[in-house]
Each structure stands twice: as C-alpha cells, then as structure tokens.
Amino acid sequence: MATKVTPRSEDYSRWYTDVVQMADLADYAPVKGCMIIKPHGYALWENIKAGLDRRFKATGHANAYFPLFIPMSFLEKEAEHVKGFSPELAVVTHGGGKKLEEPLAVRPTSETIIGHMYAKWIQSYRDLPLLINQWCNVVRWEMRTRLFLRTTEFLWQEGHDAFATSEEAQANALQMLDVYKEFAVEDAAIPVIAGRKSESEKFAGGVTSYTIEAMMGDYKALQSGTSHFLGQNFAKAFDIKFLDENNELQYVWTTSWGVSTRMVGAVVMVHGDDQGLVLPPKLAPIQVVIVPIWKSDNQRTAVLEAVTRVEAALRDDVRVHVDDRDEYSPGWKFNEWEMRGVPLRIEIGPRDVEREQVMLARRDVPGREGKSPVPLSGLAGAVREMLTTIQADLYRRALDFREAHTYNPGDYAEFGEAVSEGFAYSWWCGDADCEAQIKEGTKATIRCIPLEQEPGKGKCIRCGKEASERAIFGRAY
Question: Which of 234, 306, 372, 377 has the greatest number of C-beta atoms within 10 Å?
Fold first, then answer.
C-alpha cells in the first residue's frame, strides 16, 4: 500500500493528494471543486471540532445556526465586504421553478445575516456581550482547488460576537486567536505564529485581522485560523444599536473568527511521511490499533483471548480498535494502519502470549527503532505515557522543522532565496506598494506581523526605509 504513495521529495503536491485519498480521508465529488469527506476524515474533523468547541464554551460562547441563503441586498450593505467576496459568490436566481424577486447568495460567510438578526436581538447594554458560534458549511467559488485546503464548499465554524465597547471587542478578537493557538499547539501538535494581517491581506470589511500561520512540510505557509476586529462597520451597515447605561443609543462593536476543514490538511502536511498519515494522538480517530498474529487455530484462540484482555484494559482510557480480520495478513494490516496514521500499534503473537507481553509500535518512529516490548501488567499506563510522548515529539519535530527553515535575510537577494525555502522574518516599512512589489517579485506574501516583536528599528528588506516592525513573509497555500 505505502509503495503507491508518491514520495514527498519527488512531488509534494501529488504526495498530499495520494495520502488524503489512500488514507480514506476524502475523495473528489462529481461537482468540480467539491469533496466528499469519508468516515475516517470526518472522524478526524469531529475531533478537531470537539477540541475547539470545548474551548469556545469555556469562554462563554453558545452554538446556534443561521440560514444558508442570504439576500444579496444584505451583502451589498457593507461595500468593502461585498467587493471582497463578489468574485467567489454562488448566487441562486430561481427557486420552485420561478425567478426569485431577489437573488440569494449561498453563504460565503455569515457576518451579514447575523448582523441583521443582531439588530433585532440587541436593544440594551443588558443584551451585551452577545457571544455566538455556529458550525456550518460555506461556499466560495474557487478556481484552483485542492482537497481540504481550498474547496468550493467546506465546513467550518464561525464565531460572531457583539460588545458595548471597542476595548472589549479588541480583547475578544485576541482572546479567540489565543484559543486557536492553544488548540493548534496542544491538540494538533502544530507550532503556529500568531500575528496581525497587513491591510491588503485583512478580512474584507474588517478593521484588523489576526491569524495563526503554520509551516507545511514543503516550507509553504498555511493560514490556519483567523480572528477579526470588525469595529462598527457591520453595526452601522445593519443598524445594530443599543441603549447604554446613560440611556443613549450607541452602535455595538463586533468581531468574527473562524477555523475550517483546512486544519485537516494542515495535520496531513505537517506530520505526514512517505508511508501516509501521522496523526497526533489527541486528534486521531483511532489512537491504538491491536493486531493479533497467529498461524494455527490453537494459536488463534490463545492470541484472541489475550487481545480481548488487552482491549478491555485500554478501552476506558483510549480510542482502541481490534483488527482481527482473517482475510488480510498482519503485514498488510500494518501497512494499512500506518497509512491511516494510527499513532500506536499493539502486536500480539503466540510468543507475546507466552511471555505475558505485547509489542508496541510507534507510527512516528518507523522500523525496529519504534518498537518495544511491554508487559501486560501496567499496560494501560504504558500506553497512555507512550501516546503523551508521541504527541510531544510530533510538536517538537514540527517546531524544529519550522525554526530550521525560518531565516533572517540580510538583503533582498537573500530574501528571495529565503522565501523559496521557508519563512523570511524581515523588517517591513508598512507601505502597501512595497508589499505588492515583494509579492510580484518573489510570490511571497506577508503571512503576518507577529504579535511578539523584538524591540528596535531596522531597514525595510525591499526599499530600505526605516521600519518599526518585522513581518513573516512566505509563499502560501
């Protein structure tokens, strides 16, 4: 099975598509640009959802659902917003065999429909803050698509919050960015850089956009989550007002924030190898797979009895699966579960039964180096400890990789070389024309202006003007 995967070093793009399909994460839909998420891929997305949703609710958010269809007039109320999304809109003009009185946009994002409803729901300062998240699908008519990374329809969550003051809203935008960063690091084992988007890269209709940026295995950046301070732009467009404590009418201040199924693609590209997926234990649909090994019926009975005991010892602590299929050899099963990224494999054969032990095999450490015998007594604790070690090691390797491919170029020539091999951390003057020329000349964009900045000033990497901030530049998906 693994021999069919295109090596990463040969064609990274083809490798990615091979792994997504052969690991049973997703497949192409009949409609161009759409995908079908298969059970293994959806289970991974469910674990991503669970890790995020738990954190959202801890910050006081509640889940709701808003319509898929949005009147076009709603999008047109915020000029910058409609201009930013117009090229990607899917529009319904007919329904029930008749032409609609007003065209309906298929949800590209929900600021407008939610703004309309918030204008009805918010009347007083007592109604604030309003903290709502929704899990849904959105449609953006993409021309160049790739499974999970960029598709015409995709799944995501979008949070939409309203506040009485600008300070509260800005603090919320940063708070939710921290939630995303925590999830990426702790659950997905992906190191990310938290920062501010440049004016040209910010959300259409927003005041300030924040992002977490991750480096993939081919040195490109992937925007992995965004949080936007929208100011009063949408409040004014949709007349979202409230009576403050002085009985005066004020516009609310709003934020929005989102993470999509793109995170599945990030997990694949950050941790995967030439044998397929490598899943962090916290997100893996199956954390441990037990593969029994036997040659005779007598051995089969004894081995399966041991397997039953092992499964019973583990099932309360980990997500465990027993692969006792007769029609496949142990070697074939090893390859399949390696392809699907299961973090830990337990092999149990006749000798293991005799010795009251099992053999643990780590997915992230191939070959004999990743195997170790473990006594049945205390197995549950050993498995938990091993999964914790795997989770930490995946993060450490990803962080080491990013740091090894992040450069501080001394001049523009070195800058061009740096962005072809990773990230360039460079001074930038803040000028949009300078940013555009960098993009045209190197195909690199400002991924973010890191929130954590080293003190001091420097010279812009392109024009040489004085600069007070550094930015992360890179080529991106």
Answer: 234
